Structures are given as structure tokens and as C-alpha cells.
Fold each of these.
Amino acid sequence: MKRVKLVVAYDGTNYCGWQKQPNGITIEEELNKALTDLLKTPTEVIGASRTDAGVHSLGNVAIFDTDARMPAEKFSYALNQRLPEDIRVQDSCEVDPEFHPRYSDSEKTYQYKILNTKFQQPLRRKDTFFYYQNLDVEKMQKASGYFVGEHDFKSFCAVNAQVKSTVRTIYSCYVEKVGDIITITITGSGFLYNMVRIIAGTLIKVGSGEIEPEQITDILYAKDREAAGPTAPACGLTMLGIEYYDDWEIRSE
């Protein structure tokens, strides 16, 4: 029996998130179907991040166990022949049997993209959030620095989330604008439910002048979801990838 790691990219527009559920098609469900078809036995993946409906990914991570003789690096090719065109495995490799995508020490990076222009651009409607009012990027950049470090992010967590602790560590958070696209890039040890989208919604409020950058400290201190900005739409969010601190890959001789 071997454990295979998959790096999965997807356009989340047509899916009800990562996790399998009864009310719609999910990324996890499609991967399970493709694996079961390939291996001719029921097979299920375990994913690193349960992205929400409409959220995209360039590098979510999943694992599965199999006794198939197929080399681990070949699974990416075989699965891509069976998956919908909006889901693609970018890499597959064998990892240590103890490796777990959620519980192994890692850092995750997300990007939130805002199309900040007078009119919507049809070709960007699926991967950006359209916001027509002019945003002050310098203020947004200043505000983003207050998120860096270890904080209690209860103000930036969905009220129905069930977690043991709302304390998280953010390693970097910055905002930049290229052309009409404002990009918020944030890297951390882990994220609460809707945390990145609430941070994005709050930074948009800063950019529009409704919140001053210095108020981020007060919002964090409040530990109250109502103190922060709205949850920005899912379409603008993409998980860029996950970097694991330990090298779990098993290299062939």
C-alpha cells in the first residue's frame, strides 16, 4: 500500500466547494469518481483545504492510498483523462505513509483579486470581484500590515464556524495594483472559515474610505464578526498553493 499526493488546480465556478455534499457537485466528488473509475475500486481522497463554493485553486493538495502498481507520478496523466476540463491534477507523487495534508506543518497562500474599473470585463468575471468605485491601494497596503503576526481572528471568522481556537499566524499580507487588477496576497499557517474573504471585504472598506487603516487593530481586538467588513464574493479568491515544511516525498532510485 502506498500513499499518493495530488496537487490539484480547478476553476471553482461550477462547484459547491471542495467537500463532498448532497446538494451539489464538488471537487472532491469528481476526484473520487475519477479515481474509482481508474482503479476499479472505491477510492476517496483527503484534501488539505476545504475551499468554499466558487473558490478557485492552483495548488490544493489531496492524498489517497492504493495498492495499484501504477507509478505515483503517472496518476496525474491518468486522472486528467477522466476529470472535467475545469479540474486538473498538476502533479502526483508518492509520499510517506504518515503524511497528512491537513495536519502536517505547512503554510498556505491565497490571493484575492479585485477588478477595480468603471465597467465589468466579461473575461474576468469568473476570477475577480468587480468593484467600480475607485479604491485607495496605498491605504489598503497600510492596513494589510496589521494582519501580519499571531492574532485572534475571531472578527474575521464566519459566526457558524466550529473551531477550537480562532488564533492564527499570518506570515505576510500585501496589496498591489497592476492595471485594473488589485491583488491581495496572504500567507499563513492556516485560515478560519471565510477568513481571507472577510479580510478582503474589510480591505475594500479601507480602500473606499469607510475604514481607516489604523482601525484594523481595533477590529482584531473586538473579536466580533460585526466589527469587520463584509465577506467578499467567492469568485475573487484563489488558493495559490501549500508549502510543507518537511519533505514527505519519496524519491525513486
Amino acid sequence: MEMMDKTCKDFLGELASRSATPGGGGAAALVGAVGAALGNMVGCLTAGKPKYAAVEGDILALNQKAAALRARLEGLVEADAAAFAPLAKAYGIPKDNPDRPAVMARALEAAAAVPLEIMEACGEAIALLEEYEAKGSVLAVSDAGCGAVFCRAALEAAGLNVAVNTRLMADRGRAAALDARAEALRAEYLPRAEAVYAKVCHRLGGN
């Protein structure tokens, strides 16, 4: 059974078990998908309301993008599990086997690529949530804030899963390039997620 076909209870049970998958990367993708879905919820609660007729077109466009991002992140839950399998096998190759370095290099590259894509998708979701917060129904503004918080957490969690693989790469130049991309995503999108949260808190009368 694919990860996204499991019940929430079964998914969490496997996450809490000795099973190698799902792990942190898959959990990050799922949390990011939740964040994107919350944005979509804001849009659905806004579309069709006369009060928001001026932004109707923007909201409908946001909803299409949010739905696509949610589907992409759901797919990355599966992709993260699939990428870990070859890496687990590579760890089992004896260290004196001449094929091990090349196999490890390929496996680590794939295992780092998926969480990096999760980071990218979460960043895109944060950008959408900025617009949902600004244009969406005031009755759902808290959901936009929740979505930003989830996507921020997912982006940071995915970043840890990039780092856990790049640190083992023999090609330090490639590792540095992947780490730099992850850091750039953090630098761009984490402050934006924090800003969405702060705006929502202010609108709700918080600090």
C-alpha cells in the first residue's frame, strides 16, 4: 500500500515504529501538503463571496496552484520512501567492495534530492499563503497562518534531511552546492512564513 493510501492512524503508527519509512522526509512532505491544503481551504471559503469579488480571479488562480502543490507534496511522501530504499542497501555493501563508493554516491544524491524538492515546494506554498492571508476571507485568516507555520516547519525539517545525506557525500563540492541551495531556500522563505504568521497574529489581536 502506498504511503498516501494509508489511514492517518496507520501512517503515524509506522512513523513511530522501527520501520525505516516513512521517516523525517516523508513526514515533512506530508506536513507541507497540509499547509498547502489549508491555503486551498482559505481560497474555497473566499471564492464566490460578493465581498471578495474584486479578488475572485486571483483566488481561483491561487486555488489551482495550491491544489497542484498539495498533489506534488503528496507524491514526495512516496518519493522520499522510494529514495531511501537504495541508500539502505548501499549501507549494507561491505566497505572493501570497490563498487561501494559509486553506489553510495548515487544513493546519497537521490536521497538528498527529494527533501530538497520538498523544501522548494514548501517555499512555493509559503508564497501562496502570503497571498491567501492578504486576499482571503477574514473568517479564514487563521488558517492561512496555520498553513504558513506548517510549511515553515516542513521546509526546515526537509532541510535536515538534505544535510543528513550531504554530510556523507565523498564529493564535497557537490555536497556544498546542495547545502547552499538548501540554505538559500531557508533564507528566502523562512522570514516570509514568519511574516505571514505575524500578520495573522496582529489581525487576530495577538502580539
